[in-house]
Amino acid sequence: MENTINFGIDLGTTNSAIAKFVKGDVVVFNNPLDYGRSTLPSVVYYKKDRIVVGNKAKEYLERDPKNVVGLFKRKMGTSESFQIKSINESKTPVELSAQVLKELKTFVNTGDSLESVVITIPASFDSIQSNATKEAGKQAGFKQVVLLQEPIAASLAYANMKKSKELADGNWLVYDLGGGTFDVALVRIKDGEMKVVDHEGDNFLGGSDFDRLIVEKLIIPKVSEKYTFNDLENQMKSASGKYNAKYYSLLNQAEEAKIRLSAVSSAEIIVERMEDEEGNDVDMEITITKSEFNDLIKESIDGTIEMIKTILTRNSLKSNDIQFNLMVGGSTFIPYVRQRVEEVLQIPSNCEIDPTTAVAVGAAYYAATKQKEVAKEKGEKKQSTISIKASYNKASKESDELFAARIKGNTEGLFYKITRQDGGFDSGLKPLTERINEDLPLVENAYNFFTLTVYDDENNVIETDIEPIGINSGFGISGQPLPEDICLEVDDYDNPGHTRLALIFERNSVLPTKRTLTFPINKPILKGNSTDRLWINVYEGPQTSLPEANKLIGVIEISGKQVSRDIAKGSDLEITIMISESRDVTVAGYLNMSDQEFKNVFNPKERDTNISLLKGQVTDLSSKLDEEIELATEKEDYETASALSKVKKEMETVSEEADKLSDDDVTDKRYQLEDKKRKIAQEIDSATKNKRLQKATDLYYETKSECEELIEASGNDHERKTYNDIVSQEGAFMATKSPLKIQEKSDELQAIIGQIRWRTPEFLKGIFAYLVENQAKMNDQSQAKSLIDAGKFAVESQNWDRLREINFGLFDLMPKGSKDEISTKIGFGL
């Protein structure tokens, strides 16, 4: 199967693996340097003259921690880098991941040239983290990288392992708890088709966090109790701390103890080779019992259970609607994890697949359905007068599968035949036409190879460019779902000076997807002026949340340097946004006023979490929460006040943990706290939804009344029809009780108002007069005077289009506070 990718890689936080699809089965490659193991520890060690990856690198964690890096997957997509002492350089998570991928290539002993690969990512990875993973693949030498969500990979591994047994229609869960990340996905099989319906996850929850808990909650307190230290935990977790090297050593021992506790009732950790503040040698053997460890991780496991409950509630399901919980990821080897999840949810745990390699196996099954895009070398191309473009499902549970092809070239006098490799099917010789269709019978639970051969009228074989046809009689997946809503940040005209989110793609939309939308730009862009920029933030997260509660994944940007003429405020910008199956975001723009197309105007943004800034944001959010509780109490809205008070407890915990962070903290704590802060902001937003709903409803009816009056006075037929269409939908969008959906309808009415107002001379003259009165507030008095003189001439000559442009220009000279005031008074910016 030279035309499909076939290779799948599980690029894990703590361990990675590589597998290949071979004629219906998957082979997991063994680690050539670690007999009996098929995984590679995701750890990189830098010496002056060489790079070591895997177990050997891990051995240096205690001896040379400043030159060893692990757990870097959790920082993919961030601006963080790791300083390597031996080479006096810093390495990014992308560069470190590339080293792991390069090492995995050495596992392959089949002589294959690895140019294309499927690499798995957590389902909860955002677009920036996904892009970073693709970049790591490119740096490792892969020319084509396709990303696959880990729960989908695990589902494919299980379903294809069971292909000799018909899987019943129904639902199951994939519970994927690895070394550094957690995903849970709801999988549904219906009519032989497998689909991921929903998911939840935490990119900073896994076995490495359990190791950290052992060190921070059990080891450090016991050592501090016996010896004299000044804040030992901070001295260990700070990059410049006296005991930072020892921290990594203890984490390594904690991991070994955790693994032993899966089989025995207690494990020992030895703390030595360090002195306390008084010069005393530390020498302790600390015993950790299984019950202590279980108590330690209970809160984390219960957190994963809450995520499962969220999925069930969101999809109107109960525990008895779920067939089983498929356990995946090395941390599911912990007996307490399986026991606790099954005990609370009353859903059977399914441990039939190897949790350490299941994701790599599933990735290989998926790779067998993906076409290679790597171009052949020119010398390898077949010389052919016939080109065949084929279309067919590469995985199917049906008894036969439709093969369709489009033929380019002269087909006159030509024939074709399709045969199955085992001799069990022969289509017979048929005339070759521009389009052909054939039902190909499949051997159940096997990989089916077919060959399409073209003949001339003398039965001579005609060379074509079609590769062998391969169809796996097993489960495929009906597309990867989008993990979060994708939104644009737009002006909130109901709250001048504020913004809100406009939904572009909804969570769980099947990838790839594409959408085109048009909206007026909110500022002029002067040709050649690099400081004049159209800047639109793109966020990932719930559309119902405030922008600051979501993740900024990039910006759409067009500057004055790119435009061929001056662009007036209010001109239409058409944006086309595309998201590939691997979560690549591509944005193209079209400006009607200059008749210009812009390609690749999306600039992704790395996650940059500054600890000082994070502390300030936590403080601000805490203050906002207090204000909302006070406001709800004053209005005797005790239900909202009660909901917010529960959030207050979470807020206090985050505040306490943020205060403890040192500026050079080496752990992932800042990212965990940032995610918690974001979730709290979303909870506050959700709890205060009723207040926003009432406000949105009142605004809608006010806007509707104003719009109706203006249409009666000055509206045209098109505006009247648009108004009637909106009003006819009133019952439906009011029933959603969604402030945003109601706000969207207010915006549509407001757009009609704006269209009518901005072509009305009296309105334009009124705005001009108001702006002239406020000339003293304007930033550039010389430019203001010039525009005002031009405006007076436009009024005299009744050039209303010119007056409209001048009003926009004067408005942009006002300071921000005055702009908001004017917007409120005269509805500017519509």
TrEMBL record:
Keyword Coiled coil found: yes
Coiled coil regions in record: 644-690
A family per Pfam: HSP70
GO molecular function, one term: ATP binding
Key words of the record: ATP-binding, Chaperone, Coiled coil, Nucleotide-binding
Family matches, as CDD domains: ASKHA_NBD_HSP70_DnaK_HscA_HscC (cd24029)
Family: Belongs to the heat shock protein 70 family.
InterPro entries: ATPase_NBD, Heat_shock_70_CS, HSP70_peptide-bd_sf, Hsp_70_fam
PANTHER family listed in its UniProt record: HEAT SHOCK PROTEIN 70KDA
Protein's UniProt name: Chaperone protein DnaK
